[in-house]
Structures are given as C-alpha cells and as structure tokens.
Amino acid sequence: MIDTLQRLSIDYHFQEEIEALLQKQYMESTISDGYPEFDLYEVSTRFRLLRQEGYNVPADVFNNFKNKEGRFKSELGTDIKGLMALYEASHLSIKGEDILDQAADYSCLLLDGWMMNLDQRQARLVDSTLRYPYPKNLARFTARSFVSDYKGINGWVDGLQELATMDFKMVQSTNQREILQFSEWWKDMGLANDLKFARNQPLKWYMWPMAALTNPRFSQQRVELTKPISLIYIIDDIFDVYGTLEELTLFTEAVNRWDLAAVENLPYYMKSCFNALYDTTNEIAYKIFKAHGWNPIDSLQKTWASLCNAFLVEAKWFASGQLPNSEEYLKTAVVSSGVHVVLVHMFFLLGHGITRKTVDLVNDNPGIITSTATILRLWEDLGSAKDEDQDGHDGSYVDCYMTDHKGSSVNRAREEVNRMISDAWKCLNQECLSPNSFSACFTKSSLNLARMVPLMYSYDDNHKLPILQEHMKSMLYDDVSL
C-alpha cells in the first residue's frame, strides 16, 4: 500500500499514517532475524521503504537469500518480481555494503537475461526498473506509466486511481500558475534583452524546483527558488561564452564585495546582471527573514561569491589552455555546478530547523550538498547531452582523466565517471540516514535534485530530444487521466 501511494506520488496526503506504520515496522525489524518467513520481494520492499525514510536498517537481512558459498541462491533466478525489488533495494546502498553491490549485479544480470523471454508488459516493467530504479527516480514523472502497467493487477492501484488523477490535475494547475508567476518576474527583469547571448529557458529552470519540492504547499518556495537558478545559468553563460578574463575578474570582485559601486567599470550587460543578482538576493533574504525570523543574506552572498570564484578559476584554466589534473578539476567543478547556491537558498526558504549550528553546517558544504553536486557535475561531464542553447567550453572530468592517464580510452574514462557517480550516490544515501542535522523535507528535496539529474542530461533513444522535454509536456500541459 505504501509503495503504491509513493509510486502514484500521492503519499504526502498520508504522511503521518505512513510514518507511524514504518516506525512500527522498524521497531519490529530490530528484534527479528531478517524476516526468514518472508520472500525476496517482501524483504526487499520492506528494506527499501524503511531506508528511504532514513531508517538505518542493516543490509544483512539479505543473507537469508545466500547459499553456503556466499552467493545468492540459484532458485531466486525465476522470481522476476523479487529480483526487481532486490535491484531497487540495492540502489540504497552505502559504502562498504558489499552484499548490496552483489545484489545489484546479480539481479541486473538475471533481469537482463529474462528480457527476451517475457511478455510485452513484463518486459516493459523490467526495462523500466533497470533504467529508472525507484530510489533514483522521480515518482511524479512516472505515475502514469505505473498505473498503466499495473492496472487490473493490484486492487490498491485501481482504488487509488481516481484520487491520483484528481491530485495530478490539481498539482498541474498549481505548476502552471507558478510558471506564469516566474515568467512575469523574468520578463520584468529584462535580462533576456540585456544578455542576448545567454540562455533564455524559464521552463527548464523551473523544472528543478518543481522536481525537488514536490509537495503542493511549497508553491511560493518553488517560485522563489527558480530565481537564483535562473541567475546561475545566466552567470555561467557570462563566464563560458561572452566575458573577457579582465571583465570576469572585475565581476567576481564585485560579487565578493557585494557592493553596487564595484561594478562602475564593468560593461552594461555585467552591470545589469549584477544589479539583478544583488536585488533578487536581498529580496529573497528579506522574505525569509519575515517568514522565519532569520536573515540569511550573509549565507546567500557567500554562496554567490564561491560560485563566481570557481567560475573564474575555470575561466583562467581554459584561457591558458592548460587543464588541471582531474582531482583539482572536480574540486572546483563541484562548486561551479551551482548546487550549493540552490540548496542553501532552499534550506532557508523551507525554514525548517534554522539554528546557528545548522546554518554553519549548510554554509560549510556538508556531504548532502557535495554528494548531490558531484552527481550533477559528473553526469553533465559524461557528455551524453549538450545544452542546445549554449556553445561555451567549460571542461570535462573525462578530458582531465584522459590527460592524467595517458593512453586511456574515452570508454575507460566514462567507466570511471560512472563508478564515481555510484560512489557519490552511496555517500548521499548515507547522508540521508537518521540521525542527520537537517529536516526530512530538506533531505528529501536534496535527494530529488539528484534524481532530476539524469532527466536533465539524457536524451531519448534517437539522441535528439532531451528526456526532460517529454516530462515537461506531460507534467504541465497534457490533459491527463491516470
């Protein structure tokens, strides 16, 4: 029931009941012996649901499914449903959990082998699970296919379909209103006219907060968060596409000083951008202060300074034609991803658990931020998709790796990047386990940001349209009945 509610993306209506039931299940799990009476599907699903909520349940619950040689039992190979659940559970692993790494390899190999022998519906389910495992996917983007695939099989799905359809339409209406609200703000800013060379993608920018903050009650937070996201893209284009090194240095100094007078010697387009950045950040800080009693301007300004400092370091690298080593590149690229700017703004906009301790922590790039940033940067650097409206060159970990490892192929470099993305996910999974210093809402929103990354940087099977484009149309404009 909980799994169905989550896959339909209507679990937020029943959050208290879900939390109470999972708490009860967790307490029972601490005194059980790995649920020996349950099958692979039940154990895997229970493990995943509890880990998703931050419960640090041990992975050794899967030892019951291994033989004396330490391998998963051969008789599990025909349990398609159980293997799918095991594969999804394995994506909640943390570093050092070898059993979950084995589970991922074992279930993936068997499921892939079954694909040619399944009927069309089963094959589609297996393919979807392998490509988009639930812990690393956005349920709201896949709810429609879930209903289609399970209709008539699970009575809970049929019973909840009407509620899910009503909810989808309500959320869609809210999202449409938010897009109009942000678009009006963006138009009034005038940056699209002042910076003709920069990207003008308000819908794409809005998709990040829409994916991260899924609860409809965070409407204003989504609109406000889209504003700094738009400015990250604009400033990125100034550094990558248009500005001279001298201008970029002066612009970075102005952001570090946070002083309107510091832009006097800059060209008009940079003045316009800095004024927009300065005014927007101060307005957001004032709204946060009014709502939550904490003025975050120092924290917000520092994030912008660190972002521009990282952009400038990269600009100097590429102006000189000398790439750094891969470790030095990634250290800067994680900051230049802009994730820290986004999550610090989101932390204050949500207003949950703001104390001197948590503010100091969020200012200091905690693991939940750096892991998410690493996932985004490395996914982008895989080069599977290129932004259709931006021609700047801002480097790649793949290039740096191949320079560090003479004779290494592109495929070898990409394998290394995929391994690093997997490790970053393990770190992020660890950061989301209880107890941690942040609210459950901020933690889940950070996770959603990481889940959004593959959609933002992957193309369809024909390598023409971004996967995200299909979801944009579906989520915002289709007349949908789930």
Question: Could you walk me through the main structural features you see in this protein, from its secondary elements to its overall organization?
Answer:
By secondary structure, the protein is an all-alpha fold. It has helices spanning 2-7, 15-29, 40-52, 80-90, 98-114, 120-131, 139-150, 155-189, 191-194, 202-212, 219-242, 245-257, 268-292, 297-320, 326-336, 339-350, 356-363, 367-381, 397-404, 410-431, 440-456, 467-476. It is built from 22 helices and no strands. Keywords: Lyase, Magnesium, Metal-binding.
Question: Secondary-structure blueprint of this entry?
Answer:
Blueprint: H1 2-7, H2 15-29, H3 40-52, H4 80-90, H5 98-114, H6 120-131, H7 139-150, H8 155-189, H9 191-194, H10 202-212, H11 219-242, H12 245-257, H13 268-292, H14 297-320, H15 326-336, H16 339-350, H17 356-363, H18 367-381, H19 397-404, H20 410-431, H21 440-456, H22 467-476
Helix pairs in contact: 3-4, 4-5, 5-6, 8-10, 8-11, 10-11, 10-21, 11-13, 11-14, 11-16, 12-14, 14-15, 14-16, 15-18, 18-20, 18-21, 19-20
β-strand number: 0
Rg, Å, rounded: 23 Å
- Main sheet properties: none
Give the proportion of residues in helices. Answer: 55-70%
What class do helices, strands and sheet pairing give?
mainly alpha
Q: In whole angstroms, how far apart are the ends?
A: 17 Å
Number of helices: 22
* Low-pLDDT residue spans: 384-392
Work out the strand percent. under 5%
Shape: globular
Mean pLDDT across the residues is 90
H/E element sequence:
HHHHHHHHHHHHHHHHHHHHHH
